[in-house]
Structure to design on (447 residues):
């Protein structure tokens, strides 16, 4: 079911005046912002005026009410899903994007196993970051272009479903993002916050758990900026009647050990079976705790955590994942036998040049190496190779000996190997002493 967006506002403004107002540090109201967004989506306001507006926002910023109004204008630029009939708690999760981030593959079936129904909209990978939709296509037949009716049917059947972002939801965001991308206005907190929150609101979420990544592989490279983005998004939630919690998590090294597509699916399956890497498991438990509380399935963190751990130990979460693959038409027998997931022809170790301890692993560089091996795309629409990627053997804090493998490059095309190996080697910083430990969860921002 969808809710119709409110009627478009009368055409009483001039784009020039609104650009001037913002350029001079003024505050735009909800009607003015809706006029700009609707006019841009309909094609009445040209790219060059919206570009000027975005640049004015970049330099002047937006206050909380203004950011919330922009978010709602974007959310209501297309369909807004109403999930109340099938998922009364309607809790969703969003990550600001990182390297090796297969969290959704674990978290969605995990919370579904605890009784939270999730209709999750996800994207494809671009540049150094991967996308959940690409990873799920490791299961032959897995349909990530479900119609709205089939999507909701899958949620009802399996308790959770993951579908590709459709152009019907928040079309203003897709158009604005494409313009930001070519006008140097991506890196702007009110624009990032409204972009993310508009998609979640259009997707029907009433409770939103945000995984805000901070570090070398993330959009936000300092804790201060990550906190500001987190507070801005939680503030939007407060202003528009949605409950939002932001978990700020470290992305100074890739999450888990696998960076690619099929290899990330394997790692997610391992985690669902109780054998995954410690950082991935801990992050999923932290995000799952917030989701269970927002959904009203647990009263406090201790209770939420116990339920999540039980769902992992009993393998109910893994069964949910299998049910989700089956409901969406994928070959679920691969869940029982992950050895049959796509595999690369070549495995090339990347050896440590000296003895020492791993001080840092540039997540972005590992992501770019995986992309060059074929796991990601430089441009939207490029084909990808599901089997290839980078498998880390050492993480930050680990001791290494000269010649020991730091990581393994998984390749199908031999010509992609030398540059990827060099990049992975350069991504590792080694030093004589163990580094000071950094927390995985840096902060949690609540209302
Ligand atoms: N992710 C989004 O969805 N939008 C942005 O603007 C940045 C990251």
């Amino acid at each position: 079911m969808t809710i119709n967006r409110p009627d478009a506002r009368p055409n009483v403004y001039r784009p020039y005046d609104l650009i001037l107002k913002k350029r001079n540090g003024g505050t735009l109201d909800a009607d003015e912002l809706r006029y700009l967004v609707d006019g841009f989506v309909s094609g009445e306001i040209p790219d060059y005026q919206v570009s000027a507006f975005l640049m004015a926002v970049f330099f002047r910023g937006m206050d909380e009410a203004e950011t919330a109004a922009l978010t709602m204008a974007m959310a209501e630029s297309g369909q807004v899903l109403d999930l109340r009939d099938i998922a009364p708690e309607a809790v969703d999760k969003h990550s600001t994007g990182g390297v090796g981030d297969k969290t959704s593959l674990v978290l969605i079936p995990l919370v579904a196993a605890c009784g939270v129904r999730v209709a999750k909209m996800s994207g494809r990978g671009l540049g150094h970051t991967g996308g959940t939709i690409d990873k799920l296509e490791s299961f032959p037949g897995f349909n990530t272009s479900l119609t709205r009716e089939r999507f909701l049917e899958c949620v009802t059947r399996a308790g959770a479903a993951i579908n590709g972002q459709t152009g019907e939801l928040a079309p203003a965001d897709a158009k604005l993002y494409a313009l930001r991308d070519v006008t140097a206005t991506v890196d702007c907190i009110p624009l990032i916050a409204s972009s993310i929150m508009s998609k979640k609101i259009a997707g029907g979420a009433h409770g939103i758990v945000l995984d805000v990544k901070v570090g070398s592989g993330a959009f936000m490279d300092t804790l201060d900026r990550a906190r500001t983005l987190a507070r801005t998004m939680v503030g939007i939630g407060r202003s528009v009647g949605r409950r939002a919690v932001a978990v700020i998590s470290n992305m100074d090294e890739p999450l888990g050990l696998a960076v690619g597509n099929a290899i990330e699916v394997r790692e997610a399956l391992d985690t669902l079976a109780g054998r995954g890497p410690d950082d991935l498991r801990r992050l999923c438990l932290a995000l799952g705790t917030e989701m269970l509380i927002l959904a009203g399935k647990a009263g406090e963190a201790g209770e939420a955590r116990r339920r999540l751990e039980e769902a992992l130990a009993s393998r109910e979460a893994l069964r949910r994942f299998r049910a989700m693959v089956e409901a969406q038409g994928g070959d679920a027998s691969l869940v029982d036998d992950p050895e049959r997931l796509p595999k690369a022809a070549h495995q090339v170790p990347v050896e440590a040049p000296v003895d020492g301890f791993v001080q840092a692993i540039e997540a972005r560089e590992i992501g770019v190496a995986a992309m060059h091996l074929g796991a990601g795309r430089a441009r939207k629409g490029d084909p990808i190779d599901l089997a290839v990627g980078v498998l880390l053997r050492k993480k930050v804090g680990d001791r290494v000996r000269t010649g020991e493998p730091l990581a393994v490059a998984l390749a199908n095309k031999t010509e992609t190997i030398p540059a990827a190996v060099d990049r992975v080697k350069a991504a590792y910083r080694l030093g004589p002493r163990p580094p000071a430990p950094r927390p995985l969860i840096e902060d949690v921002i609540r209302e």
